[in-house]
Every structure is written in structure tokens, then in C-alpha cells.
Amino acid sequence: MPKSPTLLQKNPHIAAVHALGHPNSPPPQTRWDQPATGWAGAPAGPAMVTVPVSHSPNAPGAASLAQGTGSALVATWTTPATDGSHNAATSFNLRSSPSGAATWTAVAGVISPYTVSGMAAGVAIDVQVQGVNVTGSSAWSATSTLTTAFAVPNVPAIASVVPPPDGTSTKLIATWSAPATDSTHGAATGFNVRFSPSGAGNWTAVSGVISPYTVTGFAGATAIDVEIQATNAAASPGAWSAITTATTWGATVAPGGWTAAATQTHNASVAPNGGVMLFATAAPTTVTGAAFAWSASNSTVPTTGLIAAAPDGQTNGWAQYFNAPATPGTYYLWMLAQGSGGVITGALVTSAITVS
To answer: Which of 72, 164, 172, 275 is 20 to 30 A removed from 140 (C-alpha atoms)?
Structure first.
């Protein structure tokens, strides 16, 4: 007789009840000894990390150039855009060259705006810019070109402003030196002068002068302010110099009837008359005396070795007998008008006299 089916055969789930406990009890804890490979119920594997790809920057646009101080150029540019294959620029390089020569001078790590200096005046300059980041450098930008300006000259230094020893009372002679050049100032190629009654600021200017320059048209015994300005091919001239003030002679001096010959014998009476005469006239300073003097200079008024003259009986006439210098050489004979206290108020100097 066949056996009856067992309870397990009739209901296999009962075995699970006996093995695992009550059907309502929670399932047992399950430990996975190996990482999951995708089957149902397996824990998730390690998270995936996306590493961004680094790219060099785009090339900047062509720089905008403007003239800076002296012969410098100022370059300005914008940061290039980023895109899917170009990251941001973190710094920039710049290079410059005389236009068309491609003899580049590069500077790294610059920012906009950047001053390109050290170039000659009046020269066309090419400029390019390059973006940089940790990955590398961009291509160089398109070329920008601008001609450097002529740097204005420095301020001239006035050496002297003095009344000339030509016997007049209406002139002053200004002497100056050319200013030095430097990185921001070009060489002077010309000069302007201006003058005014002292303190008035009522300037009269004359262009294109050279040193020494005689300014004229003044009244006697008048203080005059003088300034000098240097020019070159720059659009504007340099600054005016500091003011130098000088006073015109207050008296005029002219030769008298006796004049010294161009050759003399040393330590002998002045040829041909043994003495010299002059006329000294107030203009407007009163003449109270006159004098003669030998000098090796025809520009610096002597103040020592003066030979006093005496009135000679003619209107404004003064004269004196004296000798030629004791030592042979080339000399100039000065004729001087004097005011109160012996102050020299007018001067006239002769041409060179040879003393043998």
C-alpha cells in the first residue's frame, strides 16, 4: 500500500517555517562577502567620480593700443571666453616688436592694461597677447600696431640772462643748455623763449630760437622775467623753465673821439692818442662816473682793475690816459658807465686787441 505524502511534500513552505521560524518573523541578516556584481538585493558598489578635463585658454582678442608717457604704449585687452574645449586664462604674456620685424620681446605674467616701454620714439610697434593657465598657453592674439609718440623734451636750464655789453639799455641776452634725455623725455631740437616785465605774467613769446638769444625792446633799468621751452617732433612742447630775472642797463655807452687801436705795445701808452674817451648817458639812471678796464673776456663785465675816467668837458663825455696791459696777449677794452656808489649801469666792449 503506497505511503501517504508527507507534510513536507504536501506543503514545502512548512519546511521553511521550521527552518527559518515563524512566517511573520523578519528575514535573517545577510552578509555579502564579495562586492555585488549586480544581482538583485546586492549592495551598491563604489561611487563613480567624474574628473574634469583641463584645457588651455582661448586666444585673447587683439589688444587695444594707446600712446602712453613719452614713447611708451599702453596695451589693453579682455579675458578670452571659455567653452567646452577651452578653460579660463589665469594670466597673460605679451610680446612686442618693431612692426614687421618679428624680433619679439616677451614679458610673462602681465595684466591689462600693461605699459610697453623702452622703445624709440616715432617707431611703429607690433603687439600680441597670449592667455595662460595650468594646462598651457593659448595661441598669440592677432597683431595690434601703433606708432610710438615723440617724447617731449625735458626742461632746459637757463645758464644766465644778462644785459649785453654793446652800449645799449634795451636788451638782455639769455643763455641756456639743452636738456638731458631719459626714458620719458626725448632730445630737444628747438627752443622757444618768452619774457615779461617782472612779476606781471604778461608774456611775449618767440619761437625757434637758439642759445644765446637776445631779447630786446625793453626800457632801461627794467627787471624782466625770462623762460625757455624745449621742442621736438612731439605734439606738444616741453614745460617752460623756471623764471630767471635780469635788469637792463640803466645807461648807454658809446665811443668818444679817442679810441684804442687794434694793436698795442704792452705796458705802453694806449695808441694812438695815449688815452681813450667815451660817452655815458643816463637811460634813465643818472651817470655819476665812468671807467675803463682791460680783460681777457668780452662777455663778463670786469669789476676789478678799473681805471677811473674823468669828465672831459663834452656833454656826457669821459676820458683818461692809461697804458696797455703789461703782459702780451689778446685783450678787450671795456668802457663802463657808473651810477651811485660806483655801480656799473652800462657797458661797451671793444673787439679783440692784440698786445705784443
So the answer is: 72
Contact 296, 280 (CB under 8 A): no
Bridge partners for 190 per DSSP: 231
Q: Which of 348, 249, 333, 260 is nearest to 294 (CA)?
A: 333
Domain 64-147 belongs to what topology? Immunoglobulin-like (2.60.40)
CA gap 209, 205 in Å, rounded: 10
Q: What's the pLDDT score for residue 121?
A: 81
Q: What is the mean pLDDT of the chain?
A: 88
Predicted TM-score (pTM) above 0.85: no
**161: DSSP letter:** E
Per CATH, which fold does 251-355 belong to? Immunoglobulin-like (2.60.40)
Residue 239 has pLDDT above 70, yes or no: yes
pLDDT in tens, 256-311: 999 999 999 999 999 999 999 999 999 999 999 999 999 999 999 999 999 999 99
CA distances from 29 to 40, 45, 180, 281 (A): 16, 19, 95, 134
Give the integer Cα–Cα distance in Å for 337 and 284: 12
- CA atoms of 50 and 235, how far apart (whole Å): 60
Q: Tell me what pLDDT residue 45 has.
A: 58
Instruction: Give every CB contact of residue 90 below 8 A, 6+ residues apart in sequence.
Output: 132, 133, 134
Work out the pLDDT band at 186, boundaries 50, 70, 90: confident
| Domain spanning 157-247: CATH superfamily | Immunoglobulins (2.60.40.10)
Whether 15 shows a pLDDT value over 60: the answer reads no
Residues of the chain within CATH 2.60.40.10 domain(s) are 64-147, 157-247
User: DSSP secondary structure string, 274-335?
Assistant: BEEEEEEEESSSPP-EEEEEEES-SSSPP-SS-EE-EE-SSTTEEEEE-BPPSS-EEEEEEE
Residues sharing a CB contact under 8 Å with residue 125, sequence separation 6 or more, in sequence order: 65, 73, 96, 97, 98, 99, 116, 119, 145, 146, 147, 148
